[in-house]
Amino acid sequence: MAEPKKRLTSARSGARRSHLAHKAKKLTECPKCKAVVPSHQVCSKCGFYNGNDVMELEKKEQAKAARRKEEEEKTNE
Ligand SMILES: [Zn+2]
């Protein structure tokens, strides 16, 4: 197996590892609901990204409400 010709000094290893540290995620404010959201990610509160309803949470919520209403009407009959 290949072997390194010379031993690596601790300074060289340290210099290489100086770029390995994890950086804190950049947080931004959702322009729609003002929640704190990681940048370049869909807002988990309202499902909006770049002005578009990506997850269609509002549509799903409306559909849920409509279904509930229908069920209530059925039980009342
Ligand atoms: Zn949002």
Automatic annotation (TrEMBL):
Residues 1-22 are annotated as: Disordered. The keyword Ribonucleoprotein applies. Keywords: Ribonucleoprotein, Ribosomal protein. InterPro entries: Ribosomal_bL32, Ribosomal_bL32_bact, Ribosomal_zn-bd. GO terms for cellular component: large ribosomal subunit. GO terms for molecular function: structural constituent of ribosome. GO terms for biological process: translation. Signal peptide: none annotated. Belongs to the bacterial ribosomal protein bL32 family. PANTHER family: 50S RIBOSOMAL PROTEIN L32, LARGE RIBOSOMAL SUBUNIT PROTEIN BL32. This is Large ribosomal subunit protein bL32. It comes from Berkelbacteria bacterium GW2011_GWE1_39_12.
